[in-house]
Structure formats: structure tokens, C-alpha cells
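User: I'm putting together notes for a lab meeting next week and I want to include a structural view of one of the chains we've been expressing. I don't have a solved structure, so I'd like a prediction I can at least talk through. The sequence is below, exactly as it appears in our construct file.
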Amino acid sequence: MVISFIGNDFKYEIEAVTKLFLPLQSFEFLFEEMPVNAENFCIIKREKNTDGYILSVNVLLNGEKREISQNENGGFSDEKDETILCQNLFKILQELTGITPPWGCLTGIRPVKKVNKLLDEGKTKKEIFGILKEKYFVSDEKLELAFKTACAQSKALKMLDKRSFSLYISIPFCPSRCSYCSFVSHSIEKPEAKKLIVPYVDKLCREIEEISLIAKQLELRLDTIYIGGGTPSVLSAELIEKLMVSVKKSFDISKIHEYNVEAGRPDTITEKKLEIIRDLGATRISVNPQTMNDSVLAAIGRKHSAKDAEEAFYAARKLGFDNINMDTIAGLPTDTLKGFEHTIETLCKLDPESITIHTLTVKRASRLFSEHEERTENNIGDMVSFGQKKLLDTGYIPYYLYRQKNTVENLENVGFAKKGRECLYNIYIMEEAQTILAAGAAGSTKLVDTETGKIERIFNYKYPYEYISRYEKMMEKKQALRNFLTG
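Assistant: Thanks for the context. Below is the predicted structure for the 487-residue chain, given as C-alpha cells.
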């Protein structure tokens, strides 16, 4: 598909809308140049005329052509014009493909943030639905989901202290790489990755200590901790202990609201590791099977069974963990609607405090991007609908929601929790309501000015070997943190 922009450069949103209908396709972009001999093209045009200017969208797709043009008066308005062009492109592609994306032409990853903003402005539920339907064509089902999520977040957002922050600690290693994975995560099946683990943890402990010094100097208060990955429990018991002791020495964890550790894949979880995680202060863990069907686990490259996941869950319960999350993914290779229903029903019987339903996202960094014909595409919408309804009926409530590019059927990822067991960190990071200080490879520090809404990011080096070898250089960038937070 060739996309040509005449009189504008609205590439990001136009590409995002096009991908709703043509996922996994490659695009060629032209600026101030018309497509020549293209089998499929889209021309996004904004040009002046005697009465003002014309906004037009012209699409040729698989031999069928459609165009929408409209006259506008007054001066150019990038925000308004971009919205109109996206709406008209959406209408054309909807007609040509027969696809109706449930989130309409809303392409952002944080739809609940828009609902929260309108609630803060005093808008009623009816008014919010009307605004988002008119501008973005969002379905009633997704509006209801976003509204319920916003309501569940209300208490957590109101309890935020302006000088508080959360700490994210990255463990970018896994026992093996799942076929759908696009994260910066290294399989320790490779010797060159495994040998990086010890020096990586050494540098990570050092960074945690340096972050604590900066936080103390700036009089910031630690609110929540999240150790994620990758698979944090791929570390040996000794290294988990070393890491968590470093956290405990660097921060007063007795006053924080939440301490999360992604125990992660069942084949990495042992009783000894769980005891260390418990004894060193974690208040919430995740046991993430993704599916409770052994054939699907094998298809995605997992080396554990559904029974292993149950045993890991029960082991955590026996050791006193009373806040456990379990992750699932709808649309995994070889999975079926019946198989996904079995996963959700099995997890509901286990009765964890929270269950997250992700929708398969196929990104370039995953093996599935090049093997997408092997994906299960049928009934993914039905899988998600079943899972969400079952969890609601079982007493779970949606408390955080986000979307990603290349998510199958333009669906979403939703965390469900029992009332009062919502993960604060997940809410704060998704709603961009709090500063997140990140440690470790691929960590992204997000500095949030809660009064102005200004956000600034500081990125750590992406890969463990870079993080280790260029550590000193990376720490020089932390000066931006001081500059931002001191005004």
C-alpha cells in the first residue's frame, strides 16, 4: 500500500488507522508526490481553494476506488483536519473491507485516559459516550468497558501524592523465547546470554542504589515497586535474593503501598524462590501460564504444562501469598474458542486475585510476524468477549486497559481484579499519572509533571550487553531526571 500525503504530514495517525484494516502489511510513504502505477494506494490531501481549503481522502484497494472530499473554511487546524481525514479514511476502509473495528478510529494505546479526562471535566456517562462515539466511532461494548475501568481506577488515582514515584526493575532474560514475544528478552538457552546474568544483576543493584540517592536528594517518596521482565524468576534463588536485598537496603519498603514481582513462567518457579520473594517484602506476584492447554503451550515454545502452572499457584498460596495475578493471551497459535474457554474457567476455579486477558499482538520482533499464517485468527473476538464476560460474572472488575499496534482484530489487553486488589502500578503507568523511575536494560523512566501534564522519558540502553558495558555513560543521562523534577 502506497500512502501519499499532499499538503500535510499526518503520517502517524493515518498509518495507524490504515493498519486497523490492513494489519501486517508494509507501506510506502510519499510526501508532496502522487503514487504512480501503484496497485493499492491512499492519497491524503489538504489543499487551498478560493473558498478556504479541501480535505480529501482517495483510496484504491484491490481494484475498488472510493473518495470523500469536503470543504473547510478558515485557517488550517492540524488537530481538526487530522481528525476529519482519519474519520473519512476510516469510513472508506470500513466500506471497502467490510471490517468494523470495535474501537473505531481511536488508535491510542490509552483509551481510558480519555474517559478519565472527561470525567475530570464533569461530564456524565451519557455525555462521554456521545463525545467518543461522534469523534472516534467507538462501539458501545468498548465504551462500557473503558468506563467501568475508569470507575475502578478512581480511588487509586485520588490517593496519589504529587511527590511520589514508582520503581520499575527490568529482568530481560527468559528460560526460552515464546513465539509471540517481541520484548527485549534474552533466552538463557544461549550461552552468551546466560553468562551476562551475573554482571547484569551487579550493575542493576548499583543502579537501584543510585536511583535511591537521587530520590532522597529530591525528597521523592517511593509508592510501588514492580520487578518485571522477561521472567524475573529465571534468576537463581541467590540472585533474586541479592537483587531484593539491594532494594530493601536502598529504600524503606515498610511504607510503600505495593511490591510486585513477576514470578512469571511456572517452569522457573521454585518454593525456595517464592520464600525469598515473600520474605524480602513482595506483596503481589504473577504466575503467568498464558494458556491452560498443553498443546498450545507446546506450540508457542513453552516448556511447562498446565499442571505445572496450577502447582506453582498452589505453592504460592501455601506460602502465604494472598495477592496473585495470572496472565492469559487470546489468539495463541493452535488455540480455539473452546480451548480458551477452558483456560478462563480453569483460572476462575483457581481463584487468583487478578486475571489479565491479553490479545495476541504480532510485532516484527516476534517469530509470529513472519509466520502469521499459522496464527489462530478465527473467534479471537469471541475469545475476548467470553473471557471478559466470565470474569465480570465471577466478580472481577476491569481496572486497567491498554492497546497495542498490530493487535489482532484491533482488540485490547485488560487487567481484571477482585475489588480492592487492583495493581496500583499498572494503573499509574497506563494512565501516565505518576513518575516511574526505571532500572535495568530497556528500562524507560517516565517523568510526569502532574500539574502541567508534561511527560519526559529517559531510556536506558536496550540490550543487557550495552547496559553492562556502557553503564557509566547511561548514568550520565540521569541528570535529566534531576533537572525535570527540580523545575
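A couple of points you could mention at the meeting. Residues 337 and 383 are 6 Å apart (CA to CA). Residues 368-376 have pLDDT under 50 and may be disordered.

User: Perfect, that's what I needed.
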